[in-house]
Design goal:
binds 2-phosphoglycolic acid; TIM Barrel; eight-stranded parallel beta barrel; 15% strand; single chain
């Protein structure tokens, strides 16, 4: 069965002490309220990660992720963080290709492909983000955009490596706007993504991949979104900054 995943993306929010406090609340609530089989992922700023890994020792219900990594193994890339560094600090996941990185840091599908490769090399699970802008949806090109984002960044992988990915569909027009894709709109795209994967690989591979929805997901709409056949969880921005909301979203799977 596919893994159900709720991942929080803190983005560039929470200073160090506020981040530690929020994470402690998340651990406590996760331990008290989530089933044994459930796990949430917290993708904090780099600065916090090592301390959060230490704070999380002995817990199985929370895992840590980064929001990005550099595509090179190491070297003269001032200000960057490598996949090796993340893995060696106990981080398990890494978000790759978030729309904010594509928009503000000019990340292309080709760069994402390299980042996915280096992440897999260091046994990190990439959470690869795809999704169309409002303009692209209005122009009716959203299926093509998603097809290309998938093909150019992931189809070089063997089936054996492809199944190690988590995919997140995040329509850019729904991120941080309070506008959520309707559950039917989201399901339509998730089913399309799975169909594309089945064509490129096999139905078995497509069935194994967790596809998360992201974009203004909150405790009120999570139930309906997660009830859709091809939605396996969420990538949560704003609502992951409140421990109560984040854990309530995870509990939508109960
Ligand atoms: P949001 O962000 O939940 O605040 O819309 C989602 C994301 O960007 O991952």
């Amino acid at each position: 069965m596919r893994k159900k995943i709720v991942a929080g993306n803190w983005k560039m929010n929470k200073n160090f002490s506020d981040g530690l406090a929020l994470f402690s609340e998340v651990i406590n609530m996760a331990n008290d309220e989530l089933h044994n089989s459930q796990q949430v992922i917290v993708c904090s700023p780099y600065l916090h990660l090592h301390s959060l890994v230490q704070l999380n020792k002995g817990n199985t219900k929370v895992a840590l992720g980064a929001q990005n990594c550099h595509q090179a193994e190491s070297g003269a890339f001032t200000g960057e963080i490598s996949a090796d560094m993340l893995a060696s600090a106990g981080v398990q996941y890494v978000i790759i290709g978030h729309s904010e990185r594509r928009q503000y840091f000019a990340e292309s599908n080709a760069t994402c492909a390299e980042k996915i490769n280096i992440a897999l090399k260091h046994h990190l699970t990439p959470i690869y983000c795809i999704g169309e802008t409002l303009q692209e949806r209005e122009a009716g090109t959203h299926f093509d955009i998603i097809k290309t984002q998938l093909a150019q960044a992931t189809y070089h992988l063997s089936a054996q490596d492809f199944v190690k990915l988590v995919i997140a569909y995040e329509p850019v027009w729904a991120i941080g706007t309070g506008v959520t894709a309707s559950s039917a709109q989201a399901q339509e795209i998730h089913a399309f993504i799975r169909e594309q994967i089945a064509w490129q690989y096999t139905v078995a591979v497509a069935d194994e991949i967790s596809i998360l929805y992201g974009g203004s997901c909150n405790p009120k709409n999570a139930d309906e979104l997660f009830a859709q056949a091809d939605i396996d969880g969420g990538l949560i921005g704003g609502a992951s900054l409140k421990s109560r909301d984040f854990i309530d979203i995870a509990k939508a799977f109960n």
